[in-house]
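Structure ticket #2291
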Amino acid sequence: MPPAQVVLALALLLGIQPVTTDLYLPALPALTASLGARMAHAQLTLSALLLAFGSSQLILGPLSDRFGRRPVLLWGLAGYTVASVGGAAAPSIEVLIVWRTLQGAAMGAAVMTGRAIVRDLYHPAEGARVMSRALTGLGIIACLCAPVGGLVSDLFGWRFALLVPTVFAAATLALIALRLQETLPARNLHALRIGGLAATWSTVLRNPTFIAFGALTTASYGMLFTFLATSSFVFIQVLGLTKTQYGLVMLWSSLAYIAGTFLCRVWLPRHGVRGSVARAAGLSLAGGSGVGLLALAGAHSVPAIMVPLTLVMLGHGVHQPCGQSGAVGPFPNAAGAASALNGFVMMLVAFGIGGWVGARMDGTVMPLALGIWFWCACIALVAWTLVRRHGAAHGH
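Resolution: structure written out below.
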């Protein structure tokens, strides 16, 4: 397959996650009010989706190692499309949570398989560069999600905002069915055997390179999810932005993330994976500390959050491609299982954050600011210790 075609397919597969999470965020307060739901239940529409997303990968990863990437992708995208329609028509918050959970489980097929495809086709160092290109595409998709979600929600209501992912998934399904070839070099006939699966998971979880890069992606995603889970309530309800203005705030954060993926590609040839991650961790810690300290000083405004957050998102654009390709790098024969475990841990942490946010939202910017500061400190700690020590298997 031509490299550009691979990058496009990867961008769409990985981009289904922001389409599912970011696009409905501007509609979340209106959705909560329309269904007469409590904020904790509204947060479950996001956190339950992500827990199902992470858990499903533990099954889908070995399935893709056994039967190939294409069948898992096709069934997953078809299931996602059906669940997306069901969620848009949900009559209550409880039914919506059920459909969003099913949607998250199906979404696992797209994202997990996308990461495994990179390992199928490329060596780890080259995989980081390819992943950064694909994540640039993801960033462009994420740029459009919040503004489109805000506009659609304002013009047609929150149910139509939940329908937009249906169109995206159907288009991605068509492209995969028509253009993407099977990438798995050889099927692992023992991938689903309980003994073999337990041994594979044990091998992955004990690998220091996986631990280092898995911790990096988890801390980086923990930062992002804290922002996603709190941002619509903070910017719309606390700081008084309209849905469209909130969409522009999210657009800026996505543009900063895209710039980070370009920065990643500039740094990788010069500094290697470990050097690039270490430099990006400096951006993360500086930006996260700025968000937290300004909030503690009483500067509760959009610029006080978004100016330092720009540095955080630049760092995020480096950590994710390096971390995601690094976590599966040592496992050419079990890339699906390694990708699944990495995704599961990230989403398990996100589920915990969702519960924390639902209980801590107090009508101020503090949960957002302190949560981001905490995760940026974790990113720096992981980058300057674990990745520095054990990332050599992935790059110099």
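Closing remark: The chain has a mean pLDDT of 87.
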